[in-house]
Amino acid sequence: MPFSFSSSSLTNPSLRNLVWCRNWAKKDWAIAAFGFTLIVFAFALLSDSPRAAVQKLPKLNQQAPLVKLTLLRNAKDRGALCLDGSVPGYHFQEGFGSGSEKWLLHIEGGGWCDSISSCTRRKYTRIGSSIYMEKEIPFPGILSSDPLQNPDFFNWNKVNIRYCDGASLAGHPENDIKEGSRLFFRGQLIWEALMDELLSIGMSRAKQALLSGCSAGGLATLIHCDEFRELFPEDANVKCLSDAGGAVSFSLSCTLFISNALLIKLAEYVSIYQVLQKVCTRIVLLKWNRTRQLSNDLLYSIPSTYDLQLQCFFPEEIVKNIKTPVFLVNPAYDYWQIQHVLVPEGSDPHDHWKSCRLSISNCNNDQLDVLQGFRSSMLKAMNSFQQQKGHGMFINSCFIHCQTVQEETWHSANSPKINNKTIAESVGDWYFNRSEDVKQIDCPYPCNPTCYNKDFTRP
């Protein structure tokens, strides 16, 4: 399939302002790339429901009702299609009481497909086709209607956006694959059609709104954050939350430049460099071509040879141009990042990292040194973001991925805490300006006993 680039349809300011990283030194590359591949922006939403009022409400039934799938009405007419050409979908739960004119949108995750073959496989799954999507799903965590589980947003209008374009709602039809295994890269059109439909059913009246997302959905939140803000009046309170979005980003394994010392230590265990080279080349060939909202300023710098240091653009660069307040939720030891980027399957032929990949409690001292360097690089990359007013963050030291849509990690008696605050409480403090500066950064593993650490060795 031929690959071409064009300046047409450059409607998205976040992607239009992306900066190519070719002139960075290795040291800078290590810091910036590493940090924001592992991070993403967290969330911001609105709600004026006071906590005092929440205390008076009865606890809802533990068995939360399932929310039905709705297929996008005018999708086919607008060309807004999933990878396989099916109609995209979403789940909508109507708000009530003081939340009837407040809206929370959540974009689900699912990574990026990074080749024609992987995108073809994906179109036969629920993250590539509405044919395979669940017809009803629960709404946990930030989507919950239980005031004890979700004290600030429980009664808002809530939308779970199904993810089926394979590229964080950023693909463009000019890059469809029309021969052989046909694929539709229509993420931007899905976003536009979905926003129009939600506006028509009441979102246009919202005075408070939050766009959130997890993993690849967290990156989509970052990409579309300012576009989302522009849908509402100036006096509306609109913010964005990205949960673990940088960890998956564009599956940018090629951003794994830590430091020479860490690379040497990694090299003792894994053939990482060769793996990264292969992954980066695939991403450049396929994903750049699918993301049409790239400006001429960016396109001129596409390398003629796929040198490893020149192949990636970062969520960090998108973030620099976002005007809307964002909140970043991310674990310092994101298991997805460790398993798929730091030490991806196939890069560890002797299984030195196998036990560590499955549970951080199994990591030996050398492996923990690598993970601590991983955390340090991320925090350095976040330094400029941390200094900006209006943004917020919750960076805990847990071995987990996507914490806002899990009851156990969002807000419960056993949820991870920093300074005695759960993620939900920190996000609420930031969104409603209950605290002047909400930037929670945890101490290194294993200092936090409240962490919910995933253990893949257990059934």
Task: Please tag this protein with its features.
transmembrane helix, ten-stranded mixed beta sheet, hydrolase, globular, single chain, Rossmann fold, membrane, 10 strands, hydrolase activity, Pectin acetylesterase, 459 residues, alpha/beta
Describe this structure in words.
- The chain has 459 residues and is α/β, with parallel strands linked by helices.
- It has a single domain (67-261, 269-290, 303-441), classed as Alpha/Beta hydrolase fold, catalytic domain (Rossmann fold, 3-Layer(aba) Sandwich).
- Helices cover 33% and strands 11% of the residues.
- The chain has 18 helices and 10 strands.
- Strands 4-1-2-5-3-6-7-8-9-10 form a 10-stranded mixed sheet, sandwiched between helices.
- Helix 7 links the parallel strand 6 (208-214) and strand 7.
- Helix 2 crosses helix 15.
- It starts with 12 loop residues before the first helix and ends in an 18-residue tail after the last strand.
- Its EC number is 3.1.1.-.
- GO terms for molecular function: hydrolase activity.
- InterPro entries: AB_hydrolase_fold, PAE/NOTUM.
- This is Pectin acetylesterase.
Average pLDDT across residues?
78
Radius of gyration: 21 Å
Q: Return residue spans where pLDDT drops below 50 for at least 5 consecutive residues.
A: 1-11, 13-62, 247-265, 271-277, 287-313
* Strand content bin: 5-15%
Family: Belongs to the pectinacetylesterase family.
GO molecular function: hydrolase activity
Pfam family, one: PAE
Organism: Senna tora
